[in-house]
Amino acid sequence: QVQLVESGGGSVQVGDSLRLSCAVSGRTISTYNMAWFRQAPGKERDFVAYIDWSGGAKYYADSVKGRFTVSRDNAKNTMYLQMNSLKPEDTAVYYCALRTRSQMIADTMGRSEYDYWGQGNQVTVSS
């Protein structure tokens, strides 16, 4: 049984930093692509960042480019999202996602491309 557990969220002030973690159990992540999404109240779940199995390819939403950094430690079976210079518009529930199917990914930003999801972790940024 594959489980993804996010941690590291919380309430911060504008300009602060947070680091989210996504710990995976039930499957070794070293050959799988992963991503972060977020969902603000009343909005759809949107793509934030993608990292391929090796960590060599990373993509970001325009809204977080230059402020957020995605990384992974395959030895710890964990993915991270370092969030700097946080803004009120970053307030959302953050979800990590894991893709295990073998076909080449078509759309790294597409929710339907991912097979497993975490339960979500709240990040609140106050001005």
Describe it for me?
By secondary structure, the protein is mainly beta. The protein has strands at residues 3-7, 10-13, 18-25, 33-39, 45-51, 58-60, 68-73, 78-83, 92-99, 116-117, 121-126. The mean pLDDT is 96.
Q: Distance between the terminal alpha carbons, to the nearest Å?
A: 40 Å
Instruction: Catalogue the unreliable spans.
Output: none
Overall geometry comes to globular
Helix count? 0
* Approximate helicity band: under 10%
If you compute it from the alpha carbons, what radius of gyration comes out, rounded to the nearest whole angstrom?
14 Å
Number of DSSP strands? 11
Beta-strand content bin = over 45%
Main sheet properties: 7 strands, mixed
Helix and strand pattern: EEEEEEEEEEE
Mean pLDDT: 96
Q: What structural category characterises the helix and strand content?
A: mainly beta
